[in-house]
Amino acid sequence: KETLANLTWPGRCQTLQNSPFVLLDGAINDISARYPCSLVRQRRPSSVIAVLAVPAPKDLEGVCKEVALLTQHAIVTEVATPTLHWYPNAIDIARRHIAKADFIPDCDSAIRRALELSGPNDCVLLLGTQSFLGRALDRWNSATDRIW
Questions:
Q1: What is the pLDDT of residue 11?
Q2: Residue 132, CB half-sphere, CA atoms under 13 Å: how many?
């Protein structure tokens, strides 16, 4: 019991900072996006900006639908890697569900912009593929070499 109680899983509902609150999760479909969105709702932030990096053929539409229940602002981004393919119409998918959606192709710039737009009582919700999680964890100098 004690071992499991102390278990952390990098990239799964991981808090990266508290002010603004930054939550990172490897959500790539509607079902996996529900829990991190519910955690953000429980914190009752002043506002939420979501940064989404969901490659094709994963469920970007489903993630956007879940995020739209939480926020009116999202930034869609990509990770430069030869193994992933991105929706050419990702911004259109996001805008079908989220009132304000921007496209910033560089994921580091997208994260930086979301933080710039956030105040101390806000939330930045980072959702996406494992490559995106790795980039975010690197930005916060978070170790990913072992799970505790």
A1: 80
A2: 28
Residue type, 78: E
pTM here? Answer: 0.91
Cβ burial 63-93 (10 Å sphere, 16+ → b, else e): bbbbbbebbebbbbbbbeeeebebbeebeeb
DSSP 82: T
Burial (CB < 10 A; 0-12, 13-18, 19+), residue 18, is exposed
Residue 117 CA to residue 123 CA, distance in Å, equals 10
**Considering all CA atoms of the chain, what is the largest pairwise distance in Å, rounded to the nearest integer?**
46
Does the pLDDT at position 55 exceed 90? yes
